[in-house]
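Quick start: load a record and inspect it. Here is Ferritin-like domain-containing protein:
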Amino acid sequence: MAKTLTQMATEVLTTADGRSKTALSKRYAAEWFAARNGDTPAIEVGTATPPLHPSRPDKPELLSPRDVPRRRPGSEAGRIALLHAVAHIELNAVDLHWDIIARFGHVPMPIGFYDDWVKCAEEESRHFEMVCDCLEAMGSHYGALPAHAGMWRAAEDTAEDLMGRLAVVPMVLEARGLDVTPGMIDIFRKAKADQAVAALEVIYAEEVGHVAYGSKWFHFLCGRENADPKYVFHQLVRRYFHGALKPPFNEEKRAEAGLPPDFYWPLTEDLPLPGDGKR
Ligand SMILES: [Fe+2]
Ligand SMILES: [Fe+2]
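Running the structure step on this input writes:
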């Protein structure tokens, strides 16, 4: 029997080694798009039971965010630590995009939904590899430093809520990436670290699409339920995201990704919603 897309997604999730995970991710993305182009037989989406936590390598050691040592980005060691943190985010992102496919296979969605997340997973795989290449060129590697534990929390919290997943992962967490990446590019440009600048510029350009897909499918689901997207977004982010959103925002790139200011600005203060019993 040919593999279904959700089976492929689960296989990526259960591959522990970083570069093995991204190699498999790219292979399955290529197989999906070959089938979608009609070059090979169609692949069913199917349903699967993905693990609650994806498999990860033994290293890096995962620490609570406050225990991860902070280093100044003005030093080479600081820049390595920054890239190491980016590599960790990208590897999580590979799993997050395959997880949304595997986890919600039972929710009927248009085929374009799967195309979008497979494309994102393929891009995150390249992001991870590019950042690993930079680390290795600087004499380090992914796993050489500790990394943040808890990056999977948003996925766990929204494991049963597709709209919650879209609100928190692409529309809050990945949108945050758009806010902070220009500052990171500046750090590496000042250090004349051309390889890192090139990698971060690719990441910055491609991440706009990930946020846009989140917004697109979030609006699609709201439309299907005849719900007000802005209201639902505020409810879901307050339910699943721990803490307020932090300005400054990259309003231009957020707009390009289909995130209007009235979606995120009201979430910058941890105010209770009318009729919301929380807090
Ligand atoms: Fe990425
Ligand atoms: Fe992304």
